[in-house]
Write a structure and sequence with these properties.
The complex is a heterodimer of chains A (444) and B (276). With 444 residues, chain A is mostly helical. Chain A has three domains: 47 residues; 105 residues, no CATH class; 224 residues, MetI-like (MetI-like fold, Orthogonal Bundle). Chain A has 20 helices and three strands. The longest helix of chain A has 44 residues. In chain A, 36% of the residues are buried. Chain B has 276 residues and is of the alpha/beta class. Chain B has one domain: P-loop containing nucleotide triphosphate hydrolases (Rossmann fold, 3-Layer(aba) Sandwich), CATH 3.40.50.300. Helix content of chain B is 33%, strand content 28%. In chain B, strands 5-4-1-2-10-9-3-8-7-6 form a ten-stranded mixed β-sheet, sandwiched between helices. In chain B, a hairpin with a 2-residue loop joins strand 4 and strand 5. Classes of the chains: A mainly alpha (444), B alpha/beta (276). Chains A and B meet through helix 16 and helix 17 of A and helix 2, helix 3 and helix 6 of B.
Chain lengths: 444, 276
């Protein structure tokens, strides 16, 4: 019996096989650790730039303006500070923040028509041209007090009165490890710099418009543009993509043409996005400019829809295909028509998979920059989009633009905008995942 | 050829008449020359080895084969005096009138209530009270009501295999078909669940014509009034050496007679377990 199995050879074989199994297990663990490390590094480098010390100079101290901190004052009190300190700039502030007509017509339009907000009755019929002398600034201060939040007024004061300027910024890591050196450096400066611990991710960043000055720069219109663009993209691409998938999967015959189409759709998912941008520029911006109004959100959304359609179609088809055929048979067996079967059994069962495709598509669309630059997303837009035909700014382009600014502080602002983009992406995905899980649990 | 002389108008005793039926998948002939008269309000069983075409014939009766690309039928299947494969016949309506229960219990991933109400809703019934009545009646008829009446909202998938199959029967009954086709309805079930389904078939037959495909010859003997035995035929093309197979009906008789005094030796061999 013992001659049948050579025990020694058999033993050593087992040891070798077990050892190589262990080696492979370690290898896979190693790759996972590297992946997690890289992810951690990415998050660290972003957050590192988002919080930290800044040194600022200012023309006048806030304490000289008011006994109480500015944040505790009412809109009227803040507007009065502006009136006392910078009476000549109030017209510009009103025009920049409240104007709703063309800039060159603002001075000749009655305030009740030109102002986006409430106008006191005694000022309603006057135009800025009528308000001469001291009457002008006083009226503008009242308009600002009535229509702007205290936060907005505080930031106007910081920019125009205190003239806060960021001289230098440090990363979180530097701020924590080299605190003494930074303090010494700032104290030694001749310009009267003041050290502040500053989070670049703040409400000002979210609400303000873009600016050449980093102290004022915000991503308000860009964030709104991205949201508007994505909503429109989903609205266009979801019905189109799911419709195409239903046709290809449920109705089209299995033939050469269909297979060719499927291969091509898969390949389209890998086409560089700039090519979609060129296509969008030619087709949507130029050829169909009478419908899309040229470089509009609609053109951008149509282009992004083209970009993510292959992803949605492919994923939806796979989800439809994965619906068990006994469910279809049972439905047909009860006398359901094709459409009744598709709409009442197949689509609900495929919904989670379709939503997965949508998540993948939107995740790709939210970060796209190249095609949108071609379509005409700009960074110089300072108005919020109000219709599908508005010109628009988008977050990824703002991030790119800021990170290539010579002023180093813009890199910090750019990092903060990246955090906003990531949070937006995660929250969109969370909503889709919650919807998907609800669809799964509904399926019981 | 059996039963050739049957009067096609005589629908009182014959619910479905399968006449000279050949079924093709593309160019492949799966079933050749099947003639069967399915008797009204009787249980008819199809038995035979795997690949003999008995399921194919069953699925032809309510045009489920139409769903297979390339499937085609020659010959006629007469139901209520009309050829089911005639030009003016809508397969959707055929399937409503001739229901089907499948091999593996396949409840929809929905509640018990929604499973049973699915068919009536397809027909446009929306009234809650009407649906409630249909659901209760169908579940009672399928001998499932007492077990599930307190949690109709529970998922159909959460029931046991035997309960799921009875749910599928209830779902079929809910659209008031005249014939129920059952494709090996017990092959995925344990013996006790099988027994319950068999009892149910014997109860349902007073109202419905039932055709059942089964691998279990005891089952055919226990429940059916008529049995059709199918077998595989094969030829070899001498020049190419290509093996061609198709299914044929060997014998169709009253069950007692087929099992006690089979006319064909092939049938006798199969039912005595000598092949198949």
């Amino acid at each position: 019996m013992s001659n049948l199995v050579d025990v020694g050879v058999y033993r050593s074989g087992v040891i070798r096989r077990n050892w190589s199994a262990l080696l492979m297990q370690r290898f896979y663990l190693g790759t996972l650790v590297i992946a997690i490390f890289i992810l951690f590094l990415l998050l660290f480098s972003i957050i590192n730039q988002t919080i930290g010390y800044i040194s600022v100079t200012q023309a006048i101290k806030a304490e000289q303006l008011s006994a109480q901190p500015l944040e505790t004052l009412t809109s009227e009190e803040l507007a009065n500070i502006l009136l006392e300190q910078t009476p000549r700039l109030l017209l510009v502030m009103v025009r920049d923040n409240l104007n709703k007509v063309a800039t060159d017509q603002f001075t000749s339009t009655a305030l009740k028509d030109g102002i986006n907000g409430t106008v006191p009755a005694d000022l309603a019929d006057l135009t800025p041209r009528d308000l001469t002398g001291d009457a002008g600034p006083a009226a503008y201060a009242r308009l600002l007090a009535a229509n702007l939040t205290p936060d907005q007024l505080v930031s106007l004061i910081e920019v125009n009165v205190l003239k806060v300027e960021i001289e230098q910024s440090w990363s979180l890591w530097e701020s924590l490890t080299q605190k003494a050196e930074i303090e010494a450096e700032v104290a030694a400066s001749e310009t009267g710099e003041e050290l502040r611990f500053h989070s670049w991710l703040n409400t000002k960043l979210l609400t303000q418009r873009n600016s050449q000055r980093v102290e004022e720069a915000g991503i308000g219109p860009a964030l709104a543009g991205t949201a508007y663009l994505l909503a429109l993209t989903v609205l266009i691409s979801l019905p189109l993509g799911v419709g195409a998938a239903i046709y290809l999967e449920e109705y089209a015959q299995e033939n050469f043409l269909n297979r060719l189409l499927e291969t091509n759709i898969r390949n389209l998912a890998g086409v560089p996005s700039i090519i979609y941008g060129m296509l969008g520029l030619t087709v949507f911006v130029n050829t169909f400019s009478s419908i899309t109004q040229g470089r509009s959100i609609l053109s951008g959304a149509l282009t992004l829809s083209l970009l993510i359609l292959p992803i949605i179609i492919t994923n939806s088809r796979e989800a439809l295909r994965a619906v068990p055929s006994p469910i279809r048979e049972a439905s047909y067996g009860l006398g359901a028509t094709k459409w009744q079967t598709v709409s009442r059994q197949v689509l609900p069962a495929a919904l989670p998979g379709i939503l997965t495709g949508l998540i993948l598509g939107v995740s790709r669309a939210i970060g796209e920059t190249a095609p949108l630059i071609v379509i005409g997303a700009t960074n110089s837009i300072s108005t919020y989009p109000d219709s599908p035909f508005s010109r628009f700014a988008v977050l990824p382009f703002t991030i790119y633009n800021w990170s290539s600014q010579p002023d180093a502080a813009f890199k910090n602002a750019s990092s903060a905008a990246i955090v906003v983009l990531l949070i937006a992406l995660l929250s969109i995905n969370s909503v889709a995942i919650i919807l998907r899980n609800r669809a799964v649990s509904k399926r019981v | 050829m059996m039963n050739n002389q049957v009067n096609p108008i005589n629908t009182k005793t014959h619910a479905v008449q399968i006449q000279k039926v050949d079924i093709y998948y593309g160019s492949y002939r799966a079933v050749h020359d099947v003639n069967i008269d399915v008797h009204d309000r009787k249980i008819t069983a199809f038995i035979g080895p795997s690949g003999c075409g008995k399921s194919t014939v069953l699925r032809a009766i309510n045009r489920m084969n139409d769903l297979v690309p390339g499937a085609r039928l020659e010959g006629e299947i007469i139901f209520q005096g009309r050829n089911l494969y005639g030009k003016d016949i809508d397969a959707v309506e055929v399937r409503r009138r001739i229901g089907m229960v499948f091999q593996k219990p396949n409840p929809f991933p929905k509640s018990i209530y929604d499973n049973v109400a699915f068919g009536p809703r397809l027909l446009g019934i929306k009234d809650k009270r009407t649906l409630d009545e249909i659901v209760e009646k169908s579940l009672k008829r399928a001998a499932l009501w007492d077990e599930v009446k307190n949690d109709l909202k529970k998922s159909g998938m959460a029931l046991s295999g035997g309960q799921q199959q009875r749910l599928c029967i209830a779902r079929t009954i809910a659209v008031e078909p005249e014939i129920i086709l059952m494709d090996e309805p017990c092959s995925a079930l344990d013996p006790i669940s099988t027994q319950r389904i068999e009892e149910l078939m014997l109860e349902l037959v007073d109202q419905y014509t039932i055709v059942i495909v089964t691998h279990n010859m005891q089952q055919a003997q226990r429940v059916s009034d008529y049995t059709g035995f199918f077998s595989i035929r094969r030829t070899e093309d001498a020049s190419t050496g290509k093996d061609t197979r198709w299914g044929e009906l060997v014998e169709f008789e009253q069950t007692d007679q087929l099992f006690s005094r089979p006319a064909k030796k092939e049938t006798a061999d199969y039912i005595s377990g000598r092949f198949g």
